[in-house]
Write a structure and sequence with these properties.
The chain has 164 residues and is mostly helical. The chain is built from 7 helices and 2 strands, in the order ααααααββα. α2 runs antiparallel to α3, α3 packs antiparallel against α4 and α4 packs antiparallel against α7.
């Protein structure tokens, strides 16, 4: 278990590459088009893939700023992935631009605009699942695990830095 935390940033970096790579492979090789919520769930992975090498290059991987930014990115992704799961399960309403929920049109022009702006992929429909578990659910579980391990990593680093 200690090895995980000694190499946590490398593991986090690799998990981000695998998660993002899987999403991009599904999109570009298997033509599984993402909805707007799916796209927003990718942002933390892009951020982590970008920020960890920058801090590593400047030998600042123990920086509280890096750890805090990673944690905020993970929370952002977890928020959108849990919201997306809730939309898929009909627990939450999605944004109008994503769930196909449209307001009443007051004119023909408004109706045309609504039709033209209708998303190609509806966030409330599960486009891909394995064993009945949607990609958004898998992403929620992954981000929750990353959040827990990253929290432990932060606490360990803070207690370690106070001892030195």
């Amino acid at each position: 278990m200690i090895r995980i935390f000694n190499n946590w940033l490398t593991i986090l970096f690799l998990l981000s590459i695998v998660a993002l790579g899987s999403a991009l492979i599904a999109e570009y090789f298997f033509s599984l088009m993402p909805c707007k919520m799916c796209i927003k769930q990718r942002y933390p992975y892009y951020f982590i893939i970008l920020i960890i090498p920058i801090f590593y290059f400047f030998r600042r991987t123990q920086s509280i700023w890096l750890q805090t930014m990673n944690q905020l990115a993970i929370l952002y992704g977890l928020f959108y992935s849990v919201w997306h799961v809730g939309i898929e399960q009909k627990i939450f309403n999605g944004p109008e631009s994503c769930s196909g929920i449209k307001s009443v049109a007051n004119s023909l022009k408004d109706l045309k605009d609504q039709i033209a702006n209708q998303p190609v992929v509806n966030c409330s429909e599960v486009s891909w699942a394995i064993f009945g578990i949607s990609a958004a659910t898998i992403n929620s579980i992954l981000l929750l695990l990353i959040l827990v391990f990253n929290s432990i990593f932060i606490v360990r680093n803070l207690s370690w830095s106070k001892k030195n």
